[in-house]
Amino acid sequence: MVADITNELHYLPVIILRLVLAFIAGSVIGWERETSADLPVDHHGSMYRMFALVCIGACMFTVAGQFGFAKSLTAPDRVASNVVTGVGFLGAGLIFKDKIGEIRGLPTAVGIWVSAAIGVMIGAGNYISGLVGAVLAYFIMDMPHRFPGLFQKRNDRDAK
């Protein structure tokens, strides 16, 4: 028990850095979804919380895989692969067909998947790559809102 606490204290600055960076990355992506998604009033804050929590959770699983077990049992790659599987199920629950038959929720589902990948990257110690991934994910998700003309169908653009 004392050895576990001593080991954790030794790695604590690295772990805290990873968690804070995962929080920032997930928050940035969640904020974009929050300000862009058409949500009912009683759901405000749900996208932000979901993305930030998924990113931090993925980071915590990765940190636990890397630092939380005896070295003979350590398998961070297994942790990462299970995060991918679990988050895939979470994302699948967000995709639905509305009353008029249109499929909704794909950008959010994919965003959650990417947010988990960012959390795993930061949890594994790839800080810069994780933050670059977060910035790129933000721009990818924000582009249709910033430049709607780029995302119109060709027929609609030609008609104008």
Automatic annotation (TrEMBL):
Pfam families referenced in this protein's UniProt entry, alphabetically: MgtC (PF02308)
UniProt main location, coarse: membrane
Subcellular location: Cell membrane
Key word Transmembrane present: yes
Transmembrane regions: 12-31, 51-73, 79-96, 108-141
A GO CC term attached to the entry: plasma membrane
Bilayer disposition of the protein: Multi-pass membrane protein
Family: Belongs to the MgtC/SapB family.
PANTHER family: MAGNESIUM TRANSPORTER YHID-RELATED, PROTEIN MGTC
Protein name per Swiss-Prot or TrEMBL: MgtC/SapB/SrpB/YhiD N-terminal domain-containing protein
